[in-house]
Design a protein that fits this description.
The protein is α+β, with helices and mostly antiparallel strands. The chain is 34% helix and 24% strand. The chain folds into 2 domains: 3-148, PurM-like, N-terminal domain (60s Ribosomal Protein L30, Chain: A); 161-320, Phosphoribosyl-aminoimidazole Synthetase, Chain A, domain 2 (Alpha-Beta Complex), CATH 3.90.650. It contains 11 helices and 13 strands. The two termini are 40 Å apart. Bound molecules: adenosine-5'-diphosphate and magnesium ion. Adenosine-5'-diphosphate is lined by residues 12, 15-16, 30-33, 92, 94, 123, 125-128.
Length: 330
């Protein structure tokens, strides 16, 4: 069945089922002119939005609608995590070609609902319009954070350790495998492709790092080089990173034997890893454990005087690391 045969209101009726996963904070969800929410007293409110455009940010050739729905929420949850907060509510605006199947939309929303259930986030509204171009999905997410736990980009101090969670570069290698096709036979490819299609936002670790004294933090959406430069310029400091310390997965290294991409380029410029990069003073950092953070993490460098991000290579040669991630208008 096509959307044009059920119409805007018919579609909303189908999609609005089962959208509240943390009812304590909602007075009115989907169905009125505006959602009515009950914020936690004395918490700061966070708000972030991300727009995904077909054939700019994703292609239906390599993703299932359910995976697309999951990821369209995940990227915003990750922004909230990078502030030390927890996502609470989402509104979803979509522009859809009238020829789209209703089942496609149901599956897209299944993916959104899956991640919202996982992270106890409510879908409390949205907007549905038609387009004669490609699919556009805009997700806005609100979150909450205790003021003492808020982490901004601007707090890095000279002498702090720079660290990242997890491993870097998996997502962009996953994208390369998807674009090349015929990756299913390689066991190493699965975690890389999964990292690209359905990233797991690090909400628990982000909150704990906030509590445990992270002085600055970013989620890695545009690549480590770009995120690091953002922290350096917001904090008015320099950063020195060591190439040999960058955490790379064995799957990424295995993939480089079959795909003509360097693991280092994936790690520095690939983007969409949705890991967290953070700074912390050495005394606080020495108290962190994998258990207390909730995931693996690795020290990759330190905050220094200056304003540039420097990378020391294997031979100890230094070079300036420029932000070279994806930029829409270049
Ligand atoms: P209004 O005309 O008052 O803006 P709409 O008819 O556009 O209301 O929407 C009706 C209800 O459905 C509202 O609560 C709105 O937030 C919600 N809604 C509309 N589109 C979506 C969507 N794509 N996803 C989730 N909720 C939606
Ligand atoms: Mg409307």
């Amino acid at each position: 069945m096509k959307i044009k045969s059920v119409g805007e209101f018919g579609l909303i009726d189908i999609l609005k089922e089962d959208t509240i996963y943390h009812p304590a904070n909602v007075v009115v969800g989907i169905g009125d002119d505006a959602a009515v929410l009950l914020p936690t007293p004395r918490h700061l409110q966070l708000m972030t939005t991300d727009m995904l455009v077909e054939n700019v940010h994703f292609t239906m050739k390599t993703t299932l609608p359910q995976q697309l729905g999951y990821k369209s929420m995940a990227v915003s949850f990750s922004d909230i995590a990078a502030m030390g907060g927890k996502p609470c509510h989402a509104v979803v605006s979509i522009a859809i070609p009238p020829e789209t199947d209703v089942d496609f939309m149901i599956n897209l929303y299944q993916g959104m609902k899956e991640i919202c259930r996982e992270y106890a986030v409510n879908i409390v509204g949205g907007d549905t319009v038609s387009t004669h171009h490609e699919l556009v999905i805009n997700v806005t997410v609100t979150g909450e954070v205790d003021a003492a736990q808020l982490v901004r980009r601007a707090g890095a101090q000279v002498g702090d350790i720079v660290a990242v969670t997890g491993t870097l570069g998996n997502s962009s290698m996953g994208l390369a495998l998807l674009s090349k096709g015929q990756w299913e036979d390689y066991p190493f490819a699965w975690p890389l492709v999964t990292a690209h299609l359905t990233p797991k936002p690090l909400v628990g670790p982000g909150q704990r790092l906030g509590k445990m004294g992270a002085t600055s933090m970013n989620d890695i959406s545009d690549g480590l080089a770009s995120e690091m430069n953002e922290i350096a310029s917001a904090s008015k400091v320099g950063v020195r990173l060591e190439q040999t310390k960058l955490p790379l997965s064995k799957e990424l290294l295995e993939a480089t034997e079959r795909i003509d991409l360097s693991a280092l380029d994936c790690a520095l410029y690939g983007g969409e890893d949705y890991q967290l990069v953070f700074t912390m003073n050495p005394a606080d950092f020495s108290c962190l454990t994998e258990e207390s953070v909730g995931c693996a993490f690795t020290a990759i460098g330190e905050v220094v005087e200056g304003e540039e991000v420097i990378l020391l290579d294997k031979e100890g040669q230094s070079s300036v690391l420029k932000p070279r991630g994806f930029n829409h208008f270049c």
